[in-house]
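Example 3.2
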Amino acid sequence: MPSLRLVADMNYYFNKGVDWSGKEDDLVDGMEMGAGFDFALSEALQLSAGFLRTINSGALKPYQSDLSHTFTTSTIGAGGRYYVNPHLYVSFGVSNTFYDDLNNSGVDYRGMTIGNETYDKTALDFAIGIGYSR
């Protein structure tokens, strides 16, 4: 179907090969995978949706603190593009990222003792834009 496009994505993060200002021992390599589609309902309107899952953020327990933490996540998103004319279009989208709960205690990368902490959050994003091309 010429109006349907499927995409797959895999990102591998070489965290161990980066200078993290002394935090390298608290990181391993990370990975995320995603899939999505784009469908043209007409020449003027395109819709898309996708899913992204962090398999491993790469951060070990000592890396986590209340000021510097990273979670494994799942993100879903949807959006579209409407062509007003062949050169002008409006784009729109929404995504929601669900962070897995992270329970942390012990000693963080700064050597500070952490009590029993639970980090939990969700991020909902909306976007709209205008594009012009010749």
